[in-house]
Each structure stands twice: as structure tokens, then as C-alpha cells.
Design a protein that fits this description.
This protein is of the alpha/beta class and about 450 residues long. Helices cover about 30% and strands about 20% of the residues. The chain folds into two domains: about 1-25 and about 105-360, 3-Layer(aba) Sandwich (Rossmann fold), CATH 3.40.50.11540; about 375-440, no CATH class.
């Protein structure tokens, strides 16, 4: 019987229209807008100015603290300005805007497609190259990778878990990356294993990706202590705590971290980025993005440079369908609706989903009928209806007792609610206000 997490979860339609589509590249844009904050933590500090000439891979904004990440130019050309540009969150943030002139790369970046499997690098050097090249989590959270891979004193890592689940409907970028870059991903696994001194590597893949499971299982035979584990298809299995429970039966405590139960989790896209950073000296300047939707004429997986306007990727997939109602950055469950179709691609952009008009508007909301479905599907064992009611009447501090901060914002509660209650919206409101209160108390 396939492993999975035991509590809650749902089974939305997969709609993996771009599955099996080989990764393509598109032409370079004329102008890129590269955000200086593409990660959780402090924004990077720009080190270039207007009219400066930059090359591909050049550092253009420097990490401003431990929880921060370097930003590199994804193109070569001239810096036009540093200005505020609308990002995927709907807010304007500072971006370094570069006019593309050619495609000149820094000479010390290895651009060959040859596999490099030098595992004699020290753990310290692996970490330094991850920091230097601005690697962040590419599963959506964009946590600076060097922070996540820094094991606190007194803690040890038994299991390095590779999140290759990609449980969000529609998205296939990680799946296709595994099919095309399996060898590189396995080398990346060994590099991270060395850095965190893990006893074992477990790659968790949902069973709807049988080709990736077969390929990685075969290729992993040449390495010691790497296991490929098929998993039952269930959302949100890509959540760290759910994946750890499914693979190891260990439960991360409320308010705790994976390392508290001897685990470190890395997204498979991040693993590939780490391989390129350590073995190729390549900064995180491009990523695979799924462009998809039920009405999209040619869904694709596209390797694109950071800072490329989203509308270029949409055009490459056949353009906006006539019935388009909403453009989402990410998947339908945890993604964010875009306020514009030319928002720049960032390190955490896993997909561009175009929803038809009929799916883009909220259904009519009715009174809660006390059915308890939201409770039964919550993978964290919370009571979403209660959290929503408390947030609605501004009982923000009381929400802490109900463990609102444990919510992973998967959206399972809203998805399953027969009354179409905006449960997750109010829970997010409650979390945001509670965090403000807690920060004020600390300061």
C-alpha cells in the first residue's frame, strides 16, 4: 500500500495538461525587471546604478543579512533604473530594470551540458557556493536555502527529504525537470546530504509520476543511501509536515521545524539549482515555469530568465484565451491572482495558470451548515470554521490558542466547503494580524 499522510487531505482534479511536454526556452525579453526581494527575509541591497553595464550571472543586489539572498542579473545589458514594479503579491516593490543588449555571460560560469559529479567539495564550500549564487526554496516559500541547511547546535539530520511531490493541480515543472535532469538532481542530493550530514536521502514522488519514479529509481542505484519512495496521490502532500509524516511517520510538533524530528526538506527544483550553483558556479537566474489552463491552446513547461514579463510566457503558450477570467501565479490551491499579465517571473514562480471566466469568480456564499467537512480535510487538525469566525470578529490574540499559526494555507477547507465560505481568506487575515501583534510585543 502506498504511503501518505494520515490526517485530512483532498483529491482535486489533477488537470496536468502540460505533463510530458519537454522543457522549452523562449527568446530573451527586451527588458527585464528583477525584484530585489525574491525570498523570505530582508530584501537584497542593490550594488548597481543607472547606466551600469552588467553580464549574465553578475551580482546586482547583495544579501542584507543572514535571512536574505543575493540577486544576480539574468541578462546582459544596461541598467535603465531601479524603480517600483508590480509583483505577484499585488504590491509594488523595487526592481532593477535592465535593457537587454546581448547574451554575454560571466566567464566563470560553466554553460556546458556535461554532468559534473565532483563530490570531494567540503561541506563549507558547498554552503558558500549556495550563498554566493543566491539559491532559495523553489517550491513557493522561497526561504533562503543556506538558512534552511544550517543545522542548529544540538540538532542532527537523519533524513534528507526531497520534495518531488508537486501535488498542486495543473503544475508539471518539477515533474518534467526530473525527467530531463535526473542525474543532476541526484548529484545535488549527494551534495546536500554531505552539507547536512544526513544518514539517508528519501525522494518522495506521488504515484501519478510513474515515469519519474522509474527513472530516478534506476539512476539512484549507483549512489548509496538514496531511496525513491512512491506516494499515494493526495493534496497537500507537498507540505513539509505532511511529507515528513508520510515518509518517516515522524510528526513535527506545533510551532516546530523539520529539524526538530531529524529531517531537512528540499524541493526538487532547489536541488537542481544547488547542483548548478556548486558544480557549475551558476547563480539562480532562470527556472522552469508551467504555463497552463483548460483553455490554453498549447500548455508548456518553459525555462525562462528571472525578470521576464509573464505575458511573454503566455504568448509562447498560445496567448490569452478569449474566455480568460483570471491569471494565477502558481497553482489553483495556493497560488495568487495577478493584478497584471506582465508581472516579472521570480525565483519562486512555479507556474502561470489561466483560469476561464466561469472559474475566476467566487461562488455565492451561504451560511455555514455545521457539516464539519473543513475539519475533516484539514491536514493540520485545526478547526477552520472556528478560526474564520474568530478572525471575522477580530479575536486575533485568541487565535493563537487555537494554533492558527500552524495553518499551512493549503486551501483544503475552502475547497471542500459546501457553503462556499471564504475560510482561508479570514484565516490569512487572522494570521497576519496575530503576527503583527506578536512582532509588536517582541519589539
Amino acid at each position: 500500500m502506498l504511503k501518505t499522510f494520515p490526517l485530512g487531505g483532498i483529491h482535486p482534479k489533477e488537470n496536468k495538461f502540460s505533463a510530458g511536454k519537454k522543457i522549452e526556452t523562449i527568446d530573451l525579453p527586451k527588458i527585464v525587471s528583477i525584484p530585489i526581494s525574491q525570498h523570505i527575509g530582508s530584501p537584497a541591497e542593490p550594488i548597481v546604478a543607472k547606466d551600469d553595464t552588467v553580464k549574465v550571472g553578475q551580482l546586482i543586489a547583495k544579501s542584507s543579512g543572514f535571512v536574505s539572498a543575493n540577486i544576480h542579473s539574468s541578462v546582459s545589458g544596461k541598467v535603465l533604473k531601479i524603480d517600483k514594479v508590480l509583483d505577484s503579491s499585488g504590491y509594488k516593490q523595487n526592481c532593477i530594470i535592465i535593457e537587454v543588449e546581448n547574451d554575454e555571460w560571466l566567464e566563470d560560469i560553466d554553460r556546458s551540458k556535461d554532468l559534473v559529479d565532483n563530490l570531494d567539495i567540503s561541506a563549507e564550500e558547498i554552503k558558500n557556493r549556495i550563498i554566493k549564487n543566491g539559491i532559495v526554496g523553489m517550491g513557493g516559500a522561497t526561504f533562503p536555502t543556506h538558512v534552511k541547511l544550517s543545522i542548529p547546535p544540538g540538532k542532527t539530520c537523519k533524513h534528507l527529504i526531497i520534495n518531488a511531490v508537486e501535488c498542486e493541480p495543473y503544475l508539471t515543472a518539477d515533474h518534467q525537470l526530473m525527467l530531463e535532469k535526473a542525474d543532476e538532481i541526484l548529484v545535488g542530493c549527494k551534495l546536500i546530504q554531505k552539507l547536512v550530514d544526513a544518514e539517508k536521502v528519501i525522494i518522495g514522488i506521488e504515484n501519478n509520476k510513474k515515469d519519474a519514479i522509474q527513472l530516478l529509481t534506476e539512476k539512484a542505484k549507483k549512489y548509496s543511501n538514496i531511496e525513491v519512495q512512491p506516494l499515494k496521490v493526495k493534496y497537500p502532500q507537498g507540505g513539509e509536515k505532511q511529507l515528513i509524516k508520510a515518509l518517516t511517520k515522524r510528526e513535527v510538533p506545533s510551532g516546530g521545524l523539520p529539524i526538530d524530528v531529524g529531517c531537512v526538506v528540499q524541493n526538487v527544483g532547489s536541488v537542481f539549482a544547488i547542483y548548478e550553483a556548486v558544480q557549475k558556479n551558476k547563480p539562480l537566474i532562470e527556472r522552469v515555469v508551467t504555463v497552463t489552463g483548460k483553455s490554453v491552446s498549447n500548455p508548456k513547461n518553459i525555462l525562462t530568465r528571472i525578470g521576464t514579463p509573464s505575458d511573454m510566457l503566455i504568448a509562447a503558450a498560445g496567448g490569452l484565451p478569449e474566455d480568460s477570467g483570471k491569471i494565477v501565479s502558481g497553482g489553483p490551491m495556493m497560488g495568487k491572482a495577478l493584478a497584471s499579465n506582465n508581472v516579472p517571473i521570480a525565483k519562486g514562480t512555479s507556474g502561470i495558470l489561466i483560469l476561464p471566466q466561469e472559474k475566476a469568480s467566487r461562488p455565492e456564499c451561504f451560511n455555514c451548515i455545521r457539516c464539519g467537512r473543513c475539519v475533516s480535510v484539514c491536514p493540520m487538525g485545526l478547526e477552520p470554521y472556528l478560526l474564520k469566525n474568530m478572525a471575522e470578529v477580530s479575536m486575533f490574540e485568541e487565535l493563537q490558542k487555537e494554533r492558527v499559526l500552524d495553518c499551512i494555507e493549503c486551501g483544503s477547507c475552502s475547497f471542500t466547503c459546501p457553503a462556499s465560505q471564504p475560510l482561508l481568506d479570514y484565516i490569512r487575515l487572522g494570521k497576519a494580524n496575530l503576527n503583527k501583534i506578536l512582532r509588536a510585543k517582541k519589539s
